[in-house]
Amino acid sequence: MSDDPPIPGSSNGDEVDPGQPIDTLSGLEYDASRNFLGRIRRSIQRRTVVSQIVSFSWNVPFIILLEFWSALADALFPKTIGKDQRR
Asked: Which of 26, 60, 80, 87 has an alpha carbon 20 to 30 Å from 36's alpha carbon atom?
């Protein structure tokens, strides 16, 4: 497997024992402020809007070209059947 020396306190591939939780660290947990969450939400919304605009800007020329091509094909090669051309 590995040529690295074993880490002290670890056994062969077993889970690492995290030990007892530190009580003083549990008191340091705070909820995120509304301002912080609002900034994150606005940042995500900005990125989503920019992504949608870029996608739209990339796809629209192809859609317009396809519509022009189909209109030209319909004008040059009509698919309607006249009264005298029945099946």
From this structure: 26
